[in-house]
Amino acid sequence: MTDDIEGVVKDFVLKEFLPGEDPHELTDSTPLITGGVLDSIATLKVVMFIEERFGITLQAHEVDSEHLDTIAQIAQLVRAKKS
Amino acid sequence: MLHSPLGRAARQYPDHIAVVEPGKGSISYRDLDAVSDQVRDRLRSDGVSPGDRVGICLHKSIDTVAVIYGILKLGAAYVPVDPGAPPARNAFILNNCAVKLAVIGSRFEDNLRAELEKLGAVPSLFVLGDTGGGMALRRALDDAQAARPAPAATTARPAPQDLAYILYTSGSTGKPKGVMLSHENAVSFVDWCSEVFAPQTSDRFSSHAPFHFDLSILDIHLPLKHGATLVLVAEDVGKDPVRLASLIADQRITCWYSAPSILSLLAQYGKLASYDYSALRLILFAGEVFPVKHLRTLSRLLPAPEYFNLYGPTETNVCTFYQVSLPIPEERSVPFPIGKVCSHLEGRVLDEAGRELPRGHEGELCIAGRGVMQGYWSLPEQTARAFHEDQSGRRWYKTGDIVVQAPDGDYTYMGRRDRMIKRRGYRVELGEIEAGLYRHPSVKEAAVIAVSDEEAGKRVRAFLSCRDTKHPSLVQMKGFCSKNLPLYMIPDDFVWCDALPKTSTDKVDYQRLKEMG
User: Fold this and answer.
1) Residue A75 burial (10 A CB sphere; 0-12, 13-18, 19+)
2) A32 contacts in chain B (CB < 8 Å)
3) Which residue on chain A is closest to B233 by alpha carbon?
4) What CATH number is associated with residue A57?
5) Which residues in chain B have their CB less than 8 angstroms from residue A25's CB?
6) Cβ contact (<8 Å) for B474 and A36?
7) For chain B, what are the domain ranges?
8) Which of A34, A38, A41 to mutate to test the interface with B (most CBs of B within 10 A)?
9) In what order do the strands lie in the sheet with B163-169?
10) Complex ipTM, two decimals?
11) Which residue among B122, B159, B318, B429 is least packed, with the fewest CB closer than 10 Å?
């Protein structure tokens, strides 16, 4: 289920926050928080989504642009939590 | 003077905890007073004089509170900027009011210095390794003292009209404008808060708002006047209702103050029923309209505290207040009134010609009194336009808010006179967003409207036309905006048109844009 974490997160971000966007524009390294795609409420929604979807819990200090700014970082965090 | 009560509280309650930074540490009144004295001495030794402005670009921390008091003790005015805002915006602010020195976090130094250099004027920078728990400031002060000893300076006794701080808000011309607030402005407001909220030494106040936001004036200066404790809420926790819910309970917060948006999120996602909030006695909210639906949910989950709706622009800080009666009836859907004018101010409702209107008539709320700002920094024309002068020569600040006064004296907010909106408690001039969009090389025309949104309060929608055949992607536009605008100003939606609709006088037809949704 967690093999394609990047794909699952990308689909969620596109559907929720970038409706109508060309999927190729959103890459694993697109800055999400520092790039203005996710504001604070959107970041919260992503956190709630990945916590529920992957059965993990994020710590307060992990909910920031240092840990969640790209799909690659999010996927890395999810993998680390699940391992 | 705004800083005097800290010294008094330090003598009276030296061992009380003045400020808590959860997970990082705390500081007693004695130590906060002593460290802020050291800041005063260091700044004086570094060339700052009474009457100067001193910038602050730091994350919220014990260090930052001590820096604020150090600046005030020197008789200078503090100018806090949002460390998360684009460096170019912060450099503009620091340059605009010609700060003599800025106290900044090391992580912001390179970008801020580069932007300041572009403006051709880099003030002295006092750099803290990293903020947190007060340790970074003490280290920086100790290092500076070892290298260049600073003699003890005296604590200033500024005149009531001397500036205490300048807060920058969104400006319709595309540049933020500095609201100049004096010691009298601040002290009269804090004294009013003392009268209404009666703080005790046992109180624990939240500090949720960032320090460049006017809610922080109550947060910081009210508890520290009364020997109470200020509990700092870190920026990341402050945005997250799940973690915030546990922090408010764990820290035994007694007085909470924030914009309604985070309280709405707490009510919806905070799982409040699973915590003990028996300490909480006051919930204050300000900055925007609190949707009744979410306020009702919150007050059902937390029925014990008293709820106050505080209203006021940065120019006056809080100028009206209203205590919400509980329980809130199920059938109520209209927002609560903004209430009556605070005792240190006076209010009038004026028509466009400046004539006072009787109760029951819609007009612009205008405020006079000791809490009203002096003006906008270096903007005499905007300052003049912001005030109505009555026949006796008294200045009334024109809030731009249209209100109606009920027979019982309560004011109800009806809407805005101009293109300013409130978003997450911040005020946003739609014109500033448009000016930001016009900086994009592909943007030919830009017009921004706000549309109501049940969850977010307001969504910002940008209508654009493009110089090129292919317009930039959503990701590219959001990325561009994030470099030019604070996050809360970035439009939610971008709609590309061949050309924007125009009125018969060839102006952008905003009415048509609103109809287009």
Assistant:
1) buried
2) none
3) A60
4) 1.10.1200.10
5) 473-476
6) no
7) 4-238, 345-416, 420-516
8) A41
9) B124-128, B101-105, B53-57, B77-80, B163-169, B177-182, B375-376
10) 0.85
11) B159
* Number of independent structural domains in chain A: 1
Q: Between 3.60.21.10, 3.30.1490.20, 3.40.50.740, 3.30.300.30, what CATH number should domain B420-516 receive?
A: 3.30.300.30
User: For residue B245, which residues of chain A lie inside 8 Å, CB to CB?
Assistant: none
Mean pLDDT of B294-318: 95
- How many angstroms separate the CA atoms of B516 and B499, rounded? 13
Identify the residue among B475, B477, B481, B483 best suited for mutation to test binding to A, counting A beta carbons within 10 A and taking the highest: B475
Chain A hits for B239, CB-CB cut-off 8 Å, are: 40-41, 43-44, 63
Choose among A37, A47, A48: nearest Cβ to B478. A37
Q: How does pLDDT run across B412-461, given as a tens digit for each residue?
A: 998 888 888 888 888 898 989 998 998 899 999 999 999 987 766 788 99
Q: At B226, is the secondary structure helix, strand, or coil?
A: coil
For chains A and B, CB pairs below 8 A equal: 60
Query: Which of the following CATH numbers is that of domain B345-416: 3.30.465.60, 3.10.180.10, 2.60.120.330, 2.30.38.10?
Result: 2.30.38.10
Split at pLDDT 50, 70, 90, the class of A3 is low
Q: What is the pLDDT of residues B375-414, one digit of tens each?
A: 999 999 999 999 999 999 999 999 999 999 999 999 999 8
Over residues B352-379, mean pLDDT: 95
Does A41 contact B265 at a Cβ distance shorter than 8 Å? yes
Tokens 């996602």 correspond to B269
- For B239, the closest chain A residue by CA position comes to A40
> Same CATH fold, B345-416 and B4-238?
no
| Secondary structure E strands in B38-183 | 53-57, 77-80, 101-105, 124-128, 163-169, 177-182
Q: In terms of residue numbers, what domain contains A27?
A: 5-82
User: How long is chain A?
Assistant: 83
How far is residue B301's CA from residue B323's CA, in Å, rounded to a whole number?
18
Instruction: Tell me the average pLDDT across A59-83.
Output: 89
**Per-residue confidence band for A1, with pLDDT thresholds at 50, 70 and 90:** very low
Residue among B360, B287, B283, B366 at smallest CA distance from B323:
B283
Q: Which residues of chain B does A10 touch, with a Cβ-Cβ cutoff of 8 Å?
A: none
The encoded tokens of residue A67 equal: 């840990």
Which position has the higher pLDDT, B504 or B441?
B441
The pLDDT, as a whole number, for residue B369 is: 97
* pLDDT tens sequence across B19-52: 999 999 999 999 999 999 999 999 999 999 999 9
Task: Read off the tokens for B515.
Answer: 């109809």
Q: What is the pLDDT of residue B225?
A: 97
Min Cα separation B239/chain A (Å): 6
Q: Do B473 and A22 touch (CB under 8 A)?
A: yes
Chain B partners within 8 Å of A43 (Cβ): 239
B236 and chain A: CB distance < 8 Å anywhere?
Answer: yes
Identify whether the C-beta of residue B42 lies closer than 8 Å to the C-beta of residue B69. Answer: no
Considering the domain B4-238 in this protein, what is its CATH number? 3.40.50.12780
